[in-house]
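FAQ: What does a ligand-bound record look like?

Like this one, built around pyridoxal-5'-phosphate:
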Amino acid sequence: MALSIPNGGHISYGKLELGGTAGAVRGLDVQYFSFDEEMMNIDVDSTKLKVEKLAKSNKTPKLAIFGASVFLFPHPVKELESFFKSYGTVVMYDSAHVLGLIAGNRFQDPLREGAEVVTGSTHKTLPGPQGGIVLSWARYADQLKKAAFPSNLSNHHLHSVAGKAVVFNEMLAYGKDYASQIIENAHEFAVQLAANGFKVLGEKAGYTKSHQVIIDISEYGGGGKLEKLLEQANIIVNRNMIHDDIKAGRHFDNPGGLRFGVQELTRLGMVKEDMRIIADYIRDLIIKHKDPSIIANEVRQMRNRFRTVKYTFDEQGAYSYYKLRNSSIV
Ligand SMILES: *Cc1c(COP(=O)(O)O)cnc(C)c1O
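The answer part, i.e. the structure of the complex:
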């Protein structure tokens, strides 16, 4: 059991019909959590009813995967873990997107809330080299090792181990500050987009408590078209499926949503005031139909003020060229 893709689920837990890894590669039967689209979160009560029904027809889920790719609010792990465990369902949490917010202690604490296994990416809100991570308890160590090797991989990527050690240390030192600023920026960005006339999802729950902001742009021509328009203006975003897309006949190539993440802007030192400027660029492009080449120039100028990586031991130029070998040494 996991979230469906239009409700934020990742392709790795998609059904066979959608080419999802769980269905198409692993041959698993995937059931969806019930979702409350106003609160943009898993619906606890109707998920319980659904599981009770599945159990009656001998289809009790073996694995419940919390976590998502559209992930605005902490998931109800605490509220559902003992319920799932009473059915023998293993509780897992996919922290790919939010691992840095968890490291900064600003989102939720899934292992201690009852998840038995937490997976994550080392390159999303955790600002490190690309990689995957599995966190669990000693009692699962042997099973996890067997699941990793040989069934999923054979090689650990040694070239990025030192980089990961550095980023984990940076997060111990600056993770709280970094995660707090990310969440503050995302919230401000959502507020400014809403003030500019956009339909920002999750309004009833305060728009966001993560690094992400989602807007419904179906009335402006769809995510595929607007993603390209924004790119012409030097603004890189992700088109995204939203709750109503399938019912409305929209697909992934031009879905109803755009997804923003402010973690990278925050790492370069942007704060709340900068979020308003960016929300205005987006309004100027999508609602006011300003020429993207004009905005592209403004974006370039604005970005020139942010050329240093923050939340590090040694603040460095983000775009400097580091000579590894002095050419005078032969
Ligand atoms: C990005 C993502 C993944 C995959 O992570 P990679 O480390 O980038 O391969 C898995 N789950 C979710 C929810 C994601 O958003």
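Follow-up question: can I read anything off the structure? Yes, for example: The CA atoms of residues 44 and 80 lie 7 Å apart.
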